[in-house]
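Structure representation.

___
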Amino acid sequence: TPRFVSAGFQVALFDPSPLMQQTASQFESENVTLYRTADAIPAHCADVIIMVSVLQYLSEDETNATISKLHECLKPAGVLYIADVVPTNASMVADIFSLLSAALRNGFFVAACIGLIKTFFSEYRSMRAKAGFSTWREREFLDVLVEHGFRAERLPSNVGINRGRMTFRARLKR
């Protein structure tokens, strides 16, 4: 967020999680708006929407509702990026290795190890098992985007730290 603001962009943030809203509230300013509900986001307000590491936590119905809302929020020439989409063949070991490799390269290795240990002993694993963890085939997710009125493509590399995951770029069909 600070990089976008310092570059002169107006930034809108949304996350349904109260914890993430609390974290995001530190960025609220003249150039940053925090929406506390999806319904509060105006239609056709965004030139660019970036959604990172969200789909794996959504059911199929929630994914469809989210994609519809994103379609509604984009301006006609807007661009949607959906990153960190977990492919069906992803392994937890590969995810951990990717995280630790990125942490080592970017100077947060100790913090990443502590985070993994905390996650291991937290309720996250059982919550994930109960709620499910959504994964996607490339073609399957492209089809979802097309069904919601987008022209879409998978980008050659993921914008998140996990190189094994996927990023998609979508524009409204004209």
